[in-house]
Specification:
This protein is an alpha+beta fold. It contains 8 helices and 12 strands. The chain has 2 domains: about 45 residues, no CATH class; about 240 residues, paralog of FGE (formylglycine-generating enzyme), CATH 3.90.1580. The protein is globular, with a radius of gyration of 24 Å.
């Protein structure tokens, strides 16, 4: 599009006399001083050439903060938006009598909006990103969760996934994981497990699993629509493991260093008490196990 000198002068004059709509005027008046000067010319040209740029920028931001489905090498997976909020983290009263000292003290945590995987990362998705599977001695199938992956392996997977998608995926923080397992701000009723007080409704664990993995999404979801937050495979989190503090926190990311990474959710070999939403464990970041997998987060 070519802009004549006359057109530019007219546009400049219109902005100076505030004859344009408010959003256009604001866009032309870069320094927001009530007038348009020579420093605003480039913005005026940009306004003519890209009148909908602000809307496009807003839409791109919103795509990160809504339920979204992504496809990588023919394999699709869904991310669920979790609205931010404040919650009580740790072994709260509904976790009794199974809550233990390392789930305390209770503390208030405030989180920003984020997205989390609807399911654990599957063997199919891992293969689509990495090209091959780790050992599958506990169960194999496209829709089974991947396992025998270390925390370090997960970081490599995330890096490659981000290269393929242009997104910014990562592991959930421990606080994000617990908040999502509890249902975020979608419910005031707190359950012992992720979505129910009856573990059989939502989790594959030592009693009903038959000592083997199961396909993701085979049981009930929690209120956010997330599967298998309790049971099936335990899940790596981003944080180093550390003791809780009673201080209120905003978007905590755990200790800056440590010996082991946080693991959450319990697994198919776990006793019910280890599948609770506040139960926490840790393993060395370079080790892999046939009962530990992970799910993705995004912000």
């Amino acid at each position: 599009m070519r802009i004549s000198a006359i057109s530019l002068v007219l546009l400049w004059a219109a902005c100076s006399f505030n004859l344009l709509a408010d959003d256009t005027y604001h866009r032309g008046d870069v320094n927001r001083d009530g007038s348009v000067d020579i420093n605003d010319v480039s913005s005026l040209i940009d306004l003519i050439l890209n009148p909908n740029q602000d809307d496009q920028d807003d839409q791109e931001q919103e795509q990160v903060l809504r339920d979204s489905t992504y496809t990588v090498n023919g394999v699709s997976f869904k991310m669920i938006k979790v609205d931010g909020g404040t919650f009580t983290m740790g072994g709260s009263s509904e976790q009794s009598p199974d809550n233990v000292y390392y789930e305390l003290p209770l503390h208030q945590v405030t989180l920003s909006d984020f997205c989390i995987g609807q399911t654990e990362v599957t063997q199919e998705l891992w293969t689509a990103v990495m090209g091959s599977l780790p050992s599958t001695d506990t169960g194999r199938g496209d829709n089974y969760p991947v396992y025998n992956v270390s925390w370090d392996d997960c970081q490599l997977f995330v890096d490659r996934l981000n290269e393929l998608t242009g997104q910014n995926f990562r592991l959930p923080t421990e606080a994000e994981w617990e908040y999502a397992a509890r249902g975020g701000n979608k419910t005031s009723y707190q359950t012992k497990y992720a979505g129910a007080d009856q573990i059989e409704w939502v989790a594959w664990y030592e009693v009903n699993s038959g000592d083997t993995l199961h396909r993701v999404g085979g049981l009930e979801t929690n209120v956010l629509g997330l599967y298998d937050m309790s049971g099936n495979v335990m899940e790596w989190c981003q944080d180093w493991y550390g003791d809780y503090s009673e201080d209120a926190q905003t978007n905590p990311t755990g200790p800056t260093s440590g010996d082991e990474k946080v693991v959450r959710g319990g697994g198919f070999l776990s006793h019910a008490r280890f599948c609770r939403v506040s139960a926490r464990f840790s393993y060395p970041d370079r080790e892999s196990y046939n009962f530990v997998g992970f799910r993705l987060a995004q912000q």
